Amino acid sequence: MRLQDFDFRIWDKTKEAFLKQEPTLIKLDNERVIAGRISRFYANTADIADMFIGNGNDLELELWSGFYDSKGTKIYEGDIIKTRTNTTPIVVVFEKNTFYKLGFLEVLGNIHENADLLKEQDEAKRSNN
Prior knowledge:
Elements: E1 8-12, E2 17-18, E3 24-27, E4 33-36, E5 59-68, E6 74-76, E7 79-83, E8 90-91, E9 105-110, H1 116-128
Antiparallel strand pairs: 1-2, 1-5, 3-4, 5-6, 7-8, 7-9
Domain YopX protein: 8-99
Organism: Campylobacter upsaliensis
Pfam families: YopX
């Protein structure tokens, strides 16, 4: 993936919603990158931590995989997908040596707004055992 194609979304744990406005990433030093939504502009970088609404610890960054599902929807880390060959929903995580044919994938939702899809799967597994 090229840098210009880099994309992500940010889940606000406090508001239990994705940030609607264009999120921003700012590298403060060699160790920290903060993410959020700018509330106002500051020329002085010492005030940069005040630029973001909410607590940075309440924000969860989810990266775009660089791929689309069979319907053209971007696939992000934390999405719940299903495959044509397996009707059981699975969660997107970035792991080595795990591959699916993209034409067979469909994004059903995500782990934040659609966790019930995974609960239904767990209940079905328990009832079969």
